[in-house]
Specification:
Shape: globular
Distance between the termini: 31 Å
CATH class: Mainly Alpha
CATH topology: Glycosyltransferase
Number of strands: 7
Number of domains: 1
Helix content: 40-55%
Number of helices: 13
CATH architecture: Alpha/alpha barrel
Strand content: under 5%
Radius of gyration: 21 Å
Length: 461
């Protein structure tokens, strides 16, 4: 995720009120499915990877590779919740193509942009496919469970005890910006995948790693005693992680909440229930405004970039997943998500909207308050958020038929505990970064930083 803060081009567009084109009665299951279908159609209109000559699994500029993985993870859940298989083939094609040459979500053409978190979002899509019994690929193709296991194994190999006592770095390769940063989303991907693999397979090794990752996050202060989850920490000259970026993003709370819920579902250990509850309590106070979910670090200032405009959808996904894994929290969580779903659907009234190719009047705005306001900020993130907010209202209190499956409860995906452990080198031969490149990068970073500061000063005035 290499995106810097950008002032969206639509930032100066005045929001307008309109009759909602996506009308959903959230008390009627078929109405939810119909509305979700309309929003999903608009979302997939942004995707070009199934066009002749394009690369399956890639979104066009300005979207980064990881967000396509997040989108197809959403579409796996869409199929499970609605029963609509319209997008199954394109989802399977995308995930298998981006699995790469070694079936580990490390395609060589993404080396310049792929970090640990990017790989993780594709792996979590595969994990969801295994848990949802999404149709399995042909036997001669990579299998969903094995793809998640491959990423887990590579995460283990990258666990860095030489600095900060452990943890994953943000970046995989030394030449990518952010290599000296250890962030919660990369370690959250590792934690979430480990916890879910432990639940699915029953293998204690995965559970042990989930414990280890949580303990490390807490030891360096990225997870606080009251369950705030900070963005990350920079590795200093002493090889410690004392310089913490205390910004809080919704997806960090979501990914650790869901992983903790998976561990509680598996172990019934009350410490995991306490952690799940603590994160949910923090998220409720921080990421919900007038009942609707919002992204406080950037949304009030209209400074959310393309990456950040998608974060609310992941918190929604993982809260809904938590509701299934911890039935005692179901009513509380779904009670929080219902007003957000109503507000998100009400924001799907944009017509016309630049760059939107779905049905007229069904573009979904990014901001969900005031209810019914279309803010003009459209794109993959905003559309995916609205789809998630709507479709996860179909989640039922878990029982044998509705809970995510495991290997012992009907899961059919084939695993490979040694996946991803190829001895082949992953680092390509790349031209060295020259002084002129560093200077240009410095100027670009400075310019963006100054624009953000100026924007904030203007807003404060």
């Amino acid at each position: 995720m290499q995106g810097l803060f950008k002032l969206a081009g639509a930032a100066c567009v005045l929001g307008h009120l309109a009759d909602a084109a996506v009308n959903i009665n959230f008390d009627q299951e078929q109405s939810i499915k119909d509305g979700a279908s309309t929003i999903a159609f608009g979302l997939l209109k942004y995707y070009t990877g199934n066009n002749t000559g394009d690369v399956p699994g890639n979104l066009p500029d300005p979207y980064f590779w990881w967000e396509a993985g997040a989108m197809f993870g959403t579409m796996v859940d869409y199929w499970r919740l609605t029963g609509d298989s319209t997008y199954n083939d394109v989802t399977t094609q995308a995930m298998l193509h981006q699995a790469g040459e070694d079936a580990d979500f490390m395609p060589r053409n993404q080396t310049r942009t792929e970090g640990n978190d990017d790989q993780g979002f594709w792996a979590m899509a595969a994990m969801s496919a295994a848990e949802n019994n999404f149709p399995n690929p042909p036997k001669d193709q990579p299998q969903w469970l094995a793809l998640a296991q491959a990423t887990f194994n590579q995460y283990v190999s990258r666990w860095d005890t030489e600095t900060c006592g452990g943890g994953l770095r943000w970046q995989i390769f030394t030449f990518n910006n952010g290599f000296n940063y250890k962030n919660s989303i990369s370690n959250g991907c590792f934690f979430n995948i480990a916890a879910r693999l432990a639940r699915f397979t029953g293998n204690q090794t995965y559970a042990d790693w989930a414990e280890k990752i949580w303990d490390w996050e807490a030891s360096v202060g990225l997870i606080t005693p009251d369950f705030k989850i900070y963005d990350g920490a920079t590795i200093d000259d002493a090889k410690t992680c004392k310089k913490i970026d205390m910004i809080q993003w919704s997806y960090n709370s979501g990914i650790f909440m869901h992983g903790s819920a998976s561990m509680y579902n598996l172990t019934q250990d009350k410490k995991w229930l306490t952690r799940t509850d603590g994160i949910l309590t923090q998220a409720t106070g921080l990421f919900f405004n007038n009942s609707a979910m919002f992204e406080p670090a950037c949304e009030p200032f209209r400074l959310c970039d393309n990456d950040q405009q998608s974060f609310k959808g992941y918190l929604t996904r993982w809260m809904a997943g938590t509701a299934q894994l911890v039935p005692s929290m179901f009513d509380r969580i779904m009670g929080l998500l219902r007003p957000s779903a109503e507000a998100a659907a009400a924001a799907c009234n944009g017509s016309p909207a630049t760059g939107y190719k779905g049905p007229a009047g069904t573009a979904c705005g990014f901001q969900w308050t005031p209810k019914g306001l279309f803010d003009g900020l459209v794109g993959v993130g905003a559309q995916m958020n609205a789809l998630s907010a709507s479709m996860y209202m179909l989640v039922k209190k878990a029982d044998v038929k509705t809970a995510p499956v495991t290997a012992d409860t009907g899961g059919t995906s084939v695993g490979n505990a040694n996946a991803g452990m190829s001895s082949q080198p992953k680092i390509p031969t790349l031209p060295p970064i020259e002084t002129k490149d560093r200077v240009a990068a410095a100027f670009a970073t400075t310019a963006v930083t100054l624009s953000i500061v100026a924007g904030c000063v203007f807003l404060i005035k």
